[in-house]
Design goal:
By secondary structure, the protein is of the alpha/beta class. The protein has 3 domains: 147 residues, Rossmann fold; 204 residues, ANL, N-terminal domain (Rossmann fold), CATH 3.40.50.12780; 88 residues, ANL, C-terminal domain (GMP Synthetase, Chain A, domain 3), CATH 3.30.300.30.
Length: 468
């Protein structure tokens, strides 16, 4: 999203009447649909779906072929990787993959952040690439590029999972994500907008006060929907309110609830399944397009082996699992490959085959992003505040701390170019989500402490805890 688009969304969209806001959401939905579901997507989805009966050896052979191609491309066209060793020539594909990756040192986020253009393929035309941002787990903005083919292949993993539970493209859905579809200053329903092209009801996650949640419940019951998708923390707020009001959805209305972008906690899963009367399927993916794992009906996260390779730096192991930080290698990312990227998440990889019968690596758990809510003076619980920092290039790290519903403190590790303009930009982004009533204090620090498990918490709150 460029600066012009950001300004348009923040300045023009909130002033539009409801009818035109729905029209804008519909137009955006049309553009996203065209980008995601191109010819390459349909071809890839068909190929990967038909190949679900591949053996583990066949999957390794496919991984090896894709990895070798990517290594050769990186050696020839990507400045950062010009000294990369050639691919292994071992006959066994699994051994070859291990040998090829062993010759590549892990990639740290700071290395990419300091020289992103060095990772961009000279073979890729910048004009056809999509630009994206991620705040990561630490609130540090990263600028990213990806090709239409990369985007299509990631969505092929998404829709392969969804089709397994009977959901297909074109089915109506309800979404709970970070899109600011409802102006934060709006104080009456509807707290949702409609993407008519995508048959999508878009719920705001920034208006969830106890009083407003009854309107969300009414809308969930009334909206056409075959499935629900979004952040588990936000969906959980609505699901819990549905159960407290004695208004769960009737069984059979939904095929599934799909969660992503945050760690799905056990109590959240239970509440979601009870409120929506449908199974919950989780997915692990990253903005860098370097990993994808999709959940089966036995609860395990299976690595989408056509799309990526996931290694574990083992720090703990037992008869059943091996656990440690993840190193991820995307096999679809031709414009900006990342080999053995240290994403910052920790996982427990199963040592035994999954009872569901699907071959390949599967994870019992991913300890990724788990954050508290920010509680506003008017009672709203707002999650996923990392969006505030997606375009804050002068911020190295950031953490929001709250001990009072009327105020937050924002700890910022500044870069050399941090100035008053940067400060105003951070405050403006926070205000656009939390409103003007909450007090905001920015404090510059040299570093931000990690949790005992080594993880970074983007939001720490004693008044908006993410718990049952």
């Amino acid at each position: 999203m460029n600066r012009f688009t950001t300004t348009l969304n923040q300045s023009v969209y909130p002033r539009l009447p409801l009818l035109l806001q729905n029209a804008a959401c519909t137009a955006s939905g049309f553009i996203r649909h065209r980008a995601r579901f191109n010819r390459h997507f349909h071809r890839t989805l068909l190929e990967w779906t038909e190949g679900e009966d591949r053996s583990l050896e066949e999957l390794h052979e496919l991984q090896r072929t894709r990895l070798d191609r990517l290594v050769r491309l990186a050696r020839d066209h990507i400045p950062y990787y010009r000294d990369l060793a050639p691919p292994s020539d071992k006959r066994d594909p699994d051994e070859a993959i291990r040998e090829t990756l062993a010759s590549v040192p892990p990639l740290e986020k700071r290395e990419y952040r300091d020289q992103p253009l060095a990772f961009l393929s000279r073979k890729s035309s910048r004009a056809r690439l999509y630009t994206g941002q991620t705040s990561g787990t630490t609130g540090s903005a990263l600028e990213l590029w990806h090709s239409p083919e990369t985007l299509a292949e990631e969505y092929a993993t998404v829709w392969r999972m969804r089709r397994r539970v009977g959901v297909d493209i074109g089915d109506p859905c309800m979404s709970f994500t970070g899109q600011m579809v409802v102006p934060v200053q709006q104080s009456r329903e509807p707290y949702w907008r409609t993407n008519y092209y995508g048959k999508q009801t878009l719920f705001s996650i920034y208006h969830m006060t106890p009083a407003n949640l009854r309107h969300y419940i009414d809308a969930v019951h009334a909206a056409p929907g075959r499935y629900v998708q979004g952040y588990p923390s936000s969906i959980h707020l609505v699901a819990r309110a549905m159960l407290e009001a004695g208004r769960p959805l009737p069984e059979g209305k939904l095929a599934a609830v799909f969660t992503s972008s945050e760690s799905l906690l056990a109590f959240q899963r239970t509440t979601l399944e009870q409120a929506f009367a449908a199974p919950v399927r989780d997915r692990y993916g990253v903005s860098e397009f370097a990993a994808s794992m999709t959940q089966c009906d036995r609860g395990r996260l299976h690595v989408d082996m056509e799309f990526c390779i996931v290694e574990v730096e083992v720090v703990e192991e037992s008869e059943d699992f091996e656990a440690g930080p993840l190193l991820i290698t995307g096999l679809s990312h031709d414009a900006m490959p990342m080999f053995r990227y240290r994403i910052g998440d920790v996982g427990r990889r199963a040592r035994k085959a999954c009872p569901c019968g699907r071959p390949g690596d599967s994870f019992l758990e991913i300890d990724g992003r788990t954050e508290d809510y920010v509680l506003t003076p008017d009672g709203r619980r707002v999650g996923r505040m990392d969006h505030v920092f997606k375009q804050q290039w002068a911020v190295a790290e950031a953490q929001i701390v709250q001990v009072d519903p009327g105020a937050i403190e924002v700890l910022i590790v500044p870069r050399d170019n941090y100035d008053k303009t940067s400060e105003r930009s951070v405050i403006r982004e926070i205000r656009s989500r939390l409103g003007n009533e909450i007090k905001i204090q920015l404090r510059l620090v040299n570093e931000i402490a990690r949790e005992p498990n080594g993880k970074f918490r983007a939001v720490k709150s004693t008044v908006g805890r993410n718990e049952p």
